[in-house]
Amino acid sequence: MSDNSEKRPSTRKPARRAASDLSADIANEIRDSIIDGRLIVDARLPSEAELAAQFAVSRPTVREALKRLAAQSLIRTQRGASGGAFVNRLSYEQAYPQQVTTATLLLSMNGISFATACEARFALERACALLACSNRTDQQLDALKFEIERQKDTFLSDETFCQSDVSFHRTFVDCACNPVLSYQLAGAIEAMQPLMNMITYTRRSRAVIVDLHSAILDALADRKATSCENVLDELHSYTLSLASPKS
Question: Which CATH class is domain 93-243?
């Protein structure tokens, strides 16, 4: 006798996945192929129709996947008979904006304290001091001098002074001549520092900032990493003091 209690296979069809989920899966699969070298730089991707057949999805879903990849600068599209989607060569410079945006969102959404952000930023900058003093170029020293001269202008607006402050420290990081470091610190400098400036700009002394920046420039010019680190320590302490409530 057969056991009537035996479970029969379900005849229900699995729920269809949303097109957005499918496009994300396709984008991730193509992205993985680019990262692990199965798709090389300048390689042409299959057409939309071919990708739709390959992944068993509609062409609009494929189109959305390609938009995701283009937004990450992983592919570029060309029009015409010889056009299509091609694997892009992603540079560090192209990746900076995404790094800065991510860092800004993380700071603003997670309630990172001023002291924590300040500690992280200056620890990262100090890590660049030795390489910056060893590898800086005369052109970079000139760029730092230019920002210091801008900061001495008493008619400079607060907004422009803050922008110059960010440019100075971004150039300092670039003095290490290490694109990996520059990329990693892009978020620290271009996301953390503007937030710090918003808190401290009304209380800080421009003269003190100019003096400290000039001391950093002197240390770089003389290739004295220890002196450079010491000045960064001073700037760290001064920045923290600006955010502390007055007694």
Answer: mainly alpha
